[in-house]
Amino acid sequence: MSVGIQRISFYTAPFYLDMSEFAQARGEERDKFHIGIGQDQMSVISPDEDIVTLAANAALPIMQEFDPKTITAVLFATESGIDQSKSAGAFVHGLLGLSSRCRVVELKHACYGGTAALQMAVNMVRVNTSERVLVIAADVARYELGSPGEATQGCGAVAMLISNQADILAIEAGSGYYTEDVMDFWRPNYRDTALVDGKYSTMVYLTALKYAWQYFQEERHLAYNDFARFCYHLPFTKMAIKAHSRLMKLTEQEANEATIEQAMGSSLRYNRTVGNSYSASLYFGLISLLENDAENLAGQRIGLFSYGSGCVGEFFSGIVADRYRDYLYTTKHQTLLAARQQLTFSTYLAFYKQFGEVERNDNIEIAHYTNGHFRLSAIRAHKRQYVQQSS
After folding, report:
1. If you average pLDDT over residues 56-75, what whole number do you get?
2. Cα–Cα distance measured from residue 80 to residue 169, given in angstroms and rounded to the nearest whole number
3. 300 and 245 within one domain
């Protein structure tokens, strides 16, 4: 039995802002963003989308391939919750037509939530091989206009089908983790945008990586050279490069541009255009690696590091399946990214404002913008209303 990822799919908003236009509008040099943080574009969510539509659209290709009635659980990870009580996964359960014989729960720990959901799902399947768990990580990264974090916004969702048939990646048992109570990034209930201490958060991220790796080595007795590639949580693309440079120094490897690029492969490509997706970002990186890497990674070990502010870090590993390329949604994903509409800076500001107004409103009809299969059409008497449309 090989437990792990049977299918993996992503979705992001069909709108983006080019970072060159962002730089010009904010009076900054373009290289501050294209080179400094490693971002070329950021996906911009429209007022008629949220984490539910992102999640349902991400999971749709999987549900078109598999019978929705066979899903036994939905684990929905997010830090962009839309309700303090009802799980966002319950809305997705309804939109996807899943069976009533299905458990649904929402998980939260900043950007680590997606990995918590994945590990929980893997263990559920190991205990009961008949389980087929849909893991979804979906977030909207949103900061105050004009703040340092504004350039690291984005949105997206990744859906993973976890079963005892790991057609894509078998998750290995044993991982290393690290927790510390810190205030590097947080969003109180009374705010709709996050607060972040950027330099401190970077330092804590690297500290968590160090101790999670050390614990992983104690548990698994694997060396750096036992891995073909590495994937990291990506608040911005350059963060992963900093992280891997630190790991190479910890393991006494020669860290330079060529060796870092070799180790990370194509894992950064999609994030350069999508931007931050919080709990989903590590898995955007994994999809990017598997779909774009020139080398056939079949049978190879991938190292993955997940980080969530506050903080929790976890280093774990997986073995790529022999025929993984046969089961990827590469064409769908690349078509989605290529078809996105570029926004002017003024339209980006309008979307930003309208999205916030929707989230603060208890009775509103929402204009139609997205071309995704699912959209948020209205909020009536505090109840969110979703519709399906042809895409």
Report:
1. 98
2. 27
3. yes
- Domain boundary, last residue among 301, 326, 351: 326
Tokens of 228: 């073909």
β-pairing, 41-43 vs 364-365, is unpaired
**What is the model's pLDDT at position 391?**
53
Copy the structure tokens of residue 226: 């036992």
pLDDT at 205 over 80: yes
CB neighbourhood size of 85 (10 A) = 6
What are the structure tokens assigned to 363, written together? 């009775």
pLDDT in tens, 367-387: 999 999 999 999 999 999 999
Q: Are residues 217 and 109 in the same domain?
A: no
Question: Model's pTM, two decimal places?
Answer: 0.98
- 362 CB-contact burial (10 Å; exposed 0-12 / middle 13-18 / buried 19+): exposed
Q: Does residue 151 register a pLDDT over 70?
A: yes
Same domain, 215 and 238: yes
Q: Report the number of distinct structural domains present in the chain.
A: 2
Catalytic residue numbers, as ranges:
79, 111, 233
Domain holding 148, by residue range, is 4-170+329-388
Q: CATH no. for residue 230?
A: 3.40.47.10
* 296/289 Cα distance (integer angstroms): 11
